[in-house]
Amino acid sequence: MKQKDAQLLIKNLTDRGYVFHNGRYHTPAEALRLGIEPPKKKRRKKGTAPQYSDKKDDFCFFVKIETGLDLVTEYRFDDVRKWRFDYANEEFKIAIEQEGGVWSGGRHTRGKGYINDMEKYNTAALHGWTLIRRTPDQMKTQETIQLIKTALNSVSFSK
User: Are residues 62 and 30 in the same domain?
Assistant: First the structure.
């Protein structure tokens, strides 16, 4: 058997869950029965995380039509804690967070989640971000658009 063929065979076996132990390959069932642990897969390095997602959704388009403001989703504003805003515009430093689970006891209303959110929002404020917090039902409303326009006016006025 050629070396290249042997390497392909070994890769095929390991991809299918076969475990190499004491000089032979065992099926996944044999390995489980014998108590042989499969080797842990090495995690691939993914490289640097993107600053924001390229995905646009209905809310981004709604805000663009109503205000002319371009938003990005999942904008990372802190490289140390890797915190992200749901929506953000870096030029004007305006962020919009959609707060889910308000009535269901979700992450944002339980103690630890609430405290973590406070730390995130305080850090954002100290870095000059204007933060608008909305529930999912409030997102695509004229009230939200008015808040964004007010934030844009206050940021433009201070520049």
Answer: no
Q: How many residues does the chain have?
A: 159
124: CATH: 3.40.960.10
Q: Which two tokens stand for residue 149?
A: 């326009």
CA gap 62, 6 in Å, rounded: 57
Tell whether pTM > 0.85: no
Helix (H) or strand (E) run with residue 7 in it: helix 3-15
Q: Which residues of the chain have pLDDT under 70?
A: 39-42, 44-49, 101-110, 156-159
The model's pLDDT over 94-110, given as tens digits with 9 standing for 90+, comes to 999 998 766 666 665 66
Q: What is the DSSP string of 99-115?
A: ---TTTT-TTTSHHHHH
Total domains in the chain come to 2
148 and 74 co-located in one domain: yes
In eight-state DSSP terms, residue 141 is S
DSSP 14-55: HHTT-EEETTEEE-HHHHHHHTPPPPPPPPPP--SPPSSB--
Q: Which residue has the tokens 């504003």?
A: 77
